[in-house]
């Protein structure tokens, strides 16, 4: 992959993670959940810092974590990634 193509792919991934994070944050706030409460609901031992990194698009998340977040927020995975 060329340097330009790699840069574009990286930028697209960063944009995607930021959009996903914003959606998770919006849903969390609508339900008046704290970072710590959501982390507890998904079984994360990292707590507030982990949820914050996800919401700011600074952390890749596995499909299993995405599923647990969706379940905790009362939505389907598709609802989180459809933007």
TrEMBL record:
Residues 24-80 form the HTH cro/C1-type domain. PROSITE patterns: HTH_CROC1. GO terms for molecular function: DNA binding; DNA-binding transcription factor activity. Gene3D superfamilies: lambda repressor-like DNA-binding domains (1.10.260.40). The keyword DNA damage does not apply. InterPro entries: Cro/C1-type_HTH, Lambda_DNA-bd_dom_sf, TransReg_Diox_bact_type. Keywords: DNA-binding. One of its GO terms (cellular component) is cytosol. This is XRE family transcriptional regulator.
């Amino acid at each position: 992959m060329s340097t330009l193509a790699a840069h574009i792919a990286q930028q697209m991934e960063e944009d995607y993670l930021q959009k996903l994070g914003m959606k998770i944050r919006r849903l969390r706030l609508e339900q008046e959940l704290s970072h710590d409460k959501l982390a507890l609901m998904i079984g994360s031992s990292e707590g507030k810092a982990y949820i914050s990194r996800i919401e700011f698009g600074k952390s890749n998340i596995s499909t299993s974590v995405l599923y647990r977040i969706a379940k905790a927020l009362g939505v389907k995975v598709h609802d989180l990634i459809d933007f």
